[in-house]
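tool_call predict_complex ligand=5'-O-[(L-methionyl)-sulphamoyl]adenosine
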Amino acid sequence: MRPSFFVTTPIFYVNDVPHIGHAYTVIAADVLARYRRMTGHDVLFLTGTDEHGQKIEKAAAARGESAQEMTDRLSARFATMWQTLNISNDQFVRTTEARHRTAVHALFNKLKAAGDIYEDQYKGAYCVPCESFWTELQLDDGNCPDCARPVEEVEESSYFFRMSRFGEALLQHINDHPDFITPKSRRNEVARFIEGGLRDLSVSRTGVKWGIDVPDGPGHVIYVWLDALVNYLTAVGYPDDRYKDRWPAQVHIIGKDILRFHGVYWPSFLLSAGIDLPEKIVSHGWWTIDGEKMSKSRGNVVDPGAVVAHFGADPLRYFLLREVPFGQDGNFSVPQLLSRTNTELANDLGNLLSRVVSMVHRYRDGVVPTPTATTDDETVLITIFDAIPAQVETAMSGCAFDKALAAIWTGVTEANRYVDRCAPWSLAKQGHDERLDTVLYSALEALRLLAIQFYPTMPDCARRMWTQLGLQLDPNQIDLATSLKWGGLPSGATLPGAVALFPRLDPDQIPASLTPSNTKEPTVTTDNAAQQPATTTAPVAPAAAASEATAPEDDFISIHDFAKVRLQVGKVVEAEVIKKSKKLLKLQVDIGTETRQVVAGIARKYSPEEIVGKQVVVVTNLRPAKLMGETSEGMILAAGDSEVTALLTPTEPVETGARIK
Ligand code: MSP
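tool_result ok
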């Protein structure tokens, strides 16, 4: 029987639309779920929406909507956004569903039967945005100690849960299970909180109407955090005994702000009800904007839909997990996202794929060759690739997504080095056919392994990679234990043509919608709002920009136009004539990071022997084109009108690949 792997995200408040911070939690859980499906686990991946409580009640009233209408609409908005981000959740629970009410009632009755519920009067402070009770002593200058916002004074009849009974048992559990709460700093935080003494918890409200009724407690609704936490049991069928097939959950992924609810309240409820505790609670950090906490209430949130529209889902998923170690805070920067997309995804990974696939077409008619004898070059490559799966497994077990990606990236780097070192273009030229077969095969095989390993983080990219490698893989059938063994790529398949994996994006074309801005929903909504990406407030164009846009056309280009052309110093490492052409030479030009094939109209002026070894100026971001059946991946600059009179070359030797500005 396959081992069960139950992973959850927090359920999201539906008082507003989803933002990047929410997307982060869900993407992390999705990567884990996809990875565990490939390690043979029977995965249940749960997410959903938290729809009751005073915060939602107030937000609906402010919009002039009924709470049910608003939660229906905004819950759909979260579900749609998760589709946009390629989230593979198996279940989506809403706390307004009947099955959830049944589960909450059952758990409440369990706590009651255990003697842990009693009725009393509550008097104290309540923070609506955090849905938290506080004592006067806990307040920070009269404000909520968590979010620093003003609190409300509450005095009402309430049911209490005897949380004070569970401090010792919880500490014991935390000590006995060092991985129960991670990272360690968060575990210590929870332990310190418990050591400070647990107070009984108010678990019902009479001043709030939008919630689940307390069984046999007329006028009371259940405290929204008790209601919400039970979602993890609802999804597995509680109170029906079949919930035990899936419980305990293997991982609850949460943000650091909701640690106390998951690390203290939730396990106390479970201990009282005699239900096993979850295996792990992993708490991640916060994404900030310019160092400021990103939150709906601050209005400085980034809309994941706008990011996906410009960058695609995979670059966003990759960036969020690669940029910051899980557990630490990070600053969300669009330029940094752009840089990782262009440099790592488009250049290092995308170019590797297109170079190798293009060479298989050029030298082997697009057919995957059969490898022959290997050399030290293959040994180095295979050793690196053989080591990656164990490194990824260790990283994934600890939710160290950045480390998993860094381990996979050693493969990208090594595969690029391998191609440069083995120079298949030279092997082709020199007629070393068997060696060329081995090198092309090994490069393709490295790409196959990378595609599989990138699948959990970048599912679309992986699919596009294996399609270009001539593979038809069903991700649900991939078994990492067997598919990551070197040599799995079948020889003889014909590859489709190379297609750019990630288009290089222009820094000048970042849409205004990606400027962190207020994505709060307008009060007036349209019927199909749930289907639309969140709207953002685009900055108004300054007058100068407006007049520039409407100015009559002239012969000038702006400095931005010029900056679009990427010029680099290249060194011609090989050159040959193109038989059917008097004008064209086929060059291999080293541009520092890679060697590009460039077809240049210079044959009347230069012989191949003359040009090899020369430094030239190359346009390196020109869209590849075919000339006389040969792919040209750049252009070299030369003087002359109809005929070339001289190549442009630096007056002093400079580093190959240097940028020209
Ligand atoms: N409804 C509760 C959770 C109940 S779970 C039984 C809640 N909802 S929330 O919508 O406010 O937050 C959901 C998740 O998003 C939390 O894990 C929270 O940490 C995360 N994030 C919200 N803003 C965030 C950032 N700016 N950065 C990273 N994650 C953040 O809390």
